[in-house]
Amino acid sequence: MNEQLKNDLTHLDSLLEAVKLQGLGFLEKISDRPTSVTASFPSDGTLNEIGLGGLTTLEAFNNRFEKLLVASAGPRYWGFVIGGATPAAIAGDWLTTIYDQNTQATQGQGDLSAVIEMETIKLLLDLFDLPRDFIGGFVTGATMSNFTCLAVARQWLGKQLGKDFAKDGLTERINILTATPHSSTLKSLAMLGIGSNNLDKVKVMEGNRESIDIENLDLRIKALNGQPFILITSGGTVNTVDFDDFHAISKLKKKYNFWWHIDGAFGAFATCSSKHKQLMSGWENADSIAIDCHKWLNVPYDSAIFLVKEQYKILQLETFQNSNAPYLGDPMENFSYMNFLPENSRRLRALPVWFSLRAYGKKGYQEIVENSIEMANYFGRFIENNQAFELLALVRLNTVCFTLSGDENQEKVAAFLTNLNGTGKVFMTPTLYNNKKGIRAAFVNWRTTVADIELVTAEMSKLIKT
Ligand SMILES: Cc1ncc(COP(=O)(O)O)c(C=O)c1O
């Protein structure tokens, strides 16, 4: 055995203890750690011959990179839609690395850790109050989840036309209807060979909304003259967290032949709050759903699930099966995740989720979700009541989309945000909404409190005066 490896193995406890203490130090001070860094580091791409050993490497990391890492898991990182990690999720994540399973199968011999993944999917279905007729699995993020679901949708559409796209490639135009898809959906369409331009935008509802106008959708469907299509819906949209009307779409589903996909990356968690649950009402009738776990479930990156109705198992298998590997056996008899999603080798991504769900239960998640919504509303009220700012849309759930008041100040939005992020006390991201430059603050982190909002609003008030 290599000397450095042997030494690290002998002193594994010191290495892991040092990492544990460092981790605890980081987590204890996460609220004080900057949310932005601007430093640039000279890169050193030369690999040392003998190696440093684990503890010296930790020192090297600390000397060079530790300060580069921001408090994105902390309470005031409101850009994009960034969650944190609950204590139990961190424990599960550590164990995922330590046990280092290649999660595929639920029966037979060898690694059977997919049993844990299957159970975790059931727990999530329970959390979301969804029926059990979905096949679910873990992928790296909602982008890959959208990709996975739309890949099965593509195969379904082919079948409607008597084609097998998975085997023979795309030979037909694929009709896609949608209103306000997330950019990751367009990316998925590009990766699937469908094309990111190849979609028909349905009108959105009147009154500063991003959700589908159902009447217009009905007209667009009729214009397709019975051709099959894929409907991509949002629950909710990333800019203003608008939700498509899943009840109305459920009714259309009875009338027309289409694949219905929901991108519920973070909006799906509205179901954890009895007050907001109705936003997702009817979603159980969708054919496929994408949900992120590294956002509102507050588990570490990278973690998301796809849910595809079990009745499409064969289409899913046709899409993802490893066809040319007799040693894997009959995929219909020996279930293996590698035949139902993009990756072959994969980590036990379910374990942090299993830990966090078991540790905090339905009540824990209800409180996390309701707290985030309360924080968004608290911050939204500050924007509404401050003449220097204006809301670009109603605060519907957990995101505040706002700008500087007055058209004359549009040119100042970017500089204001740069200065605000430059304080290192908060991080928000720019956006464009209805042709206006804006700023988004998304609340999904379990740690955020009123004191955090007040700290940020004080900084904003200070900056706006300068
Ligand atoms: C609605 C929606 N869909 C998809 C995604 C992509 O998620 P991920 O970055 O986890 O791939 C996001 C990310 O913010 C999102 O908000």
TrEMBL record:
<keyword id="KW-0456">Lyase</keyword>
<keyword id="KW-0663">Pyridoxal phosphate</keyword>
<protein>
    <submittedName>
        <fullName>Amino acid decarboxylase</fullName>
    </submittedName>
</protein>
<keyword id="KW-0210">Decarboxylase</keyword>
<dbReference type="InterPro" id="IPR002129">
    <property type="entry name" value="PyrdxlP-dep_de-COase"/>
</dbReference>
<dbReference type="InterPro" id="IPR010977">
    <property type="entry name" value="Aromatic_deC"/>
</dbReference>
<dbReference type="InterPro" id="IPR015424">
    <property type="entry name" value="PyrdxlP-dep_Trfase"/>
</dbReference>
<comment type="similarity">
    <text>Belongs to the group II decarboxylase family.</text>
</comment>
<dbReference type="InterPro" id="IPR015421">
    <property type="entry name" value="PyrdxlP-dep_Trfase_major"/>
</dbReference>
<dbReference type="InterPro" id="IPR015422">
    <property type="entry name" value="PyrdxlP-dep_Trfase_small"/>
</dbReference>
<dbReference type="Pfam" id="PF00282">
    <property type="entry name" value="Pyridoxal_deC"/>
</dbReference>
